[in-house]
Amino acid sequence: MGANNEENYLMLSGIQHYQFCKRQWALIHIEQQWAENVKTLEGQFLHQKADQPFIKEKRGNKLIVRAMPIQSNELRISGVCDVVEFIKDDQGVELHGHEGRYVAHPVEYKRGKPKTNDADLLQLTAQAMCLEEMLLCDVTHGFMYYHEIKRRLEVAITDSYRNKVQSIVSEMHDYYARNHTPKVKIGSFCRNCSLQHICLPKLMNKESVESFIGRKIRE
Amino acid sequence: MKKLLNTLYVTQPDVYLALDGGNVVLLKDEERLGRLPLHNLESIISFGYTGASPALMGYCADHNISIVFLTMNGRFLARVVGESRGNVVLRKKQYRLSDNENSSAKVARNFIMGKVYNQKWMIERMTREHPLRIDVEQFKKISQHLSALMVDIHACEDLERLRGLEGQAAISYNRLFNQMILQQKEDFYFHHRSRRPPMDNVNTMLSFAYTLLANDTAAALETVGLDAYVGFLHRDRPGRASLALDVMEELRGIFADRFVLSLINRRVIGPLDFYKKENGAVLMTDEARKKFLEAWQNRKQEKITHPFLGERMSWGLAPHAQALLLARYLRGDLDQYPPFLWK
Ligand code: SF4
């Protein structure tokens, strides 16, 4: 209980919102505002295909698990892996109900193409960290599948990404505990934000209300 | 700002509303009168004792479409409220502030500031546009009085005193209201506000306009996650949408009063649009109510620039913009709640 109460766990998928804009993350995850736009709908559609829980596929030395719930008690985050691939490997760990040893690799599906920022890679790293904690194994790499280029890319799970995940998640917990929606620097990226009608980005560099009223009543 | 969608006004008393896919279906004696896609609707306002299916109510609550039931004459019956949107944190903030007289006064004074400012500039506009029809000297005097009151309101941190200042402003403004009626003066005159029931044509129209505005405002507040029933200026009273009444103060004159005046002055509504009940209450005919709603709908579509946000939007979104700004103030994004100061 207390700090480890699972209700205080943050959604792993929030990492990408947080990377895009801290305020967007807070609006969605703290204020629980959600404005759907075409992009989020597309994303859901794509996920429907991957979200078929508990269907396990076996292909040769590969075991494929879809929509696997994951969490980390250390990071206090939880989420779902689109796909986890277990590959037979002597360096791996034993899995209940399966012969041999396996190593795990998270696979994340994204609409669009590879991004210039780290958001996707950090999300994948966080998934890997959850898997490591749950399976007591090492996860060395995962895969990103990008719908627009219809290809998957291998991503190494590095220590520098792990550290970054750790510090981002602890910042997120901080805001969450304080229920605080930060003000941020706005930019052209706001135009692609499905929450701009709730966020009112212009407020971030508006004159104070005090001076607005003062100015108006002197008219 | 989001887009203003349509409002469906159901004025036939014996129509039942049902859900069919993403559509609302209007049924009368099992017969379909019409069918409208819900994704084009912002709200449904139903007059008379019509019914609606729970399925429709659930769908609307989920999709942020407000449903309100009113009597034929516009008296409030019920509002459909679904599972609250947004975080309880915002509401708790609202309740805490509302519980504290001092911080309530700081929000409340800006509602009143907006109201008085807008009344002042309505009066000023009259002196510019119709100097030959009105007593300009009296208008100017009252305008100055309102300006002086605004300075006091700005500094006021006490709810009782604030109500006093508001009362003074209302007396001054009401004194001029009759002179703002420029046409059909024999049939439309305003002496004082009569509410329950409205006893003359003007009061009947004002009451109806305020009801519509209050419902739009309550819906806007609920949409952004606030509790329309917990106010700052209007204190809690069971069944009263106090916060909606608070926020609507700013828009009463500039939106509702001006709308009613324009219907009279442009002769959209005339003396034949009313009838008197035995007890003296004045009611609008069904035909008049339809004309009124149509004009109201059109007025809501007109474009304005929001005085604080500087954004173009429909008049009908003014309550939504204010609700959003209030939520953002409670969330700590703004130093105060910015009133809607319209010039
Ligand atoms: S509009 Fe801009 S500042 Fe606001 S949440 Fe979206 S990205 Fe962040």
UniProtKB/TrEMBL annotation, chain A:
One example GO MF annotation: exonuclease activity
EC code(s) of this entry: 3.1.12.1
The name this protein goes by in its record: CRISPR-associated exonuclease Cas4
Requisite cofactors: [4Fe-4S] cluster; iron-sulfur cluster; Mg(2+); Mn(2+)
Cofactor info, note text: Mg(2+) or Mn(2+) required for ssDNA cleavage activity.
Family statement drawn from the similarity comment of this UniProt entry: Belongs to the CRISPR-associated exonuclease Cas4 family.
Role description: CRISPR (clustered regularly interspaced short palindromic repeat) is an adaptive immune system that provides protection against mobile genetic elements (viruses, transposable elements and conjugative plasmids). CRISPR clusters contain sequences complementary to antecedent mobile elements and target invading nucleic acids. CRISPR clusters are transcribed and processed into CRISPR RNA (crRNA).
Iron keyword on record: yes
Protein species of origin: Ammoniphilus oxalaticus
Keywords: Antiviral defense, Exonuclease, Hydrolase, Iron, Iron-sulfur, Manganese, Metal-binding, Nuclease
GO BP: any one term: defense response to virus
InterPro entries: Cas4_exonuclease, CRISPR-assoc_prot_Cas4, Dna2/Cas4_DUF83, PDDEXK-like_dom_sf
DUF83 domain location: 13-200
NCBIfam families on file: cas4
From TrEMBL, chain B:
Protein task: CRISPR (clustered regularly interspaced short palindromic repeat), is an adaptive immune system that provides protection against mobile genetic elements (viruses, transposable elements and conjugative plasmids). CRISPR clusters contain spacers, sequences complementary to antecedent mobile elements, and target invading nucleic acids. CRISPR clusters are transcribed and processed into CRISPR RNA (crRNA). Acts as a dsDNA endonuclease. Involved in the integration of spacer DNA into the CRISPR cassette.
EC number per UniProt: 3.1.-.-
BP GO annotations: defense response to virus; maintenance of CRISPR repeat elements
Species, as recorded: Ammoniphilus oxalaticus
Enzyme class: hydrolase
Subunit comment: Homodimer, forms a heterotetramer with a Cas2 homodimer.
Database matches in NCBIfam families: cas1, cas1_DVULG
UniProt binding sites for Mn(2+): E166, H234, E249
Pfam families xrefs: Cas_Cas1 (PF01867)
CDD domains xref list: Cas1_I-C
Cofactors named for this entry: Mg(2+); Mn(2+)
Family (UniProt): Belongs to the CRISPR-associated endonuclease Cas1 family.
GO molecular function: DNA binding; DNA endonuclease activity; hydrolase activity; metal ion binding
Spans traversing the lipid bilayer: none
UniProt-recorded name of the protein: CRISPR-associated endonuclease Cas1
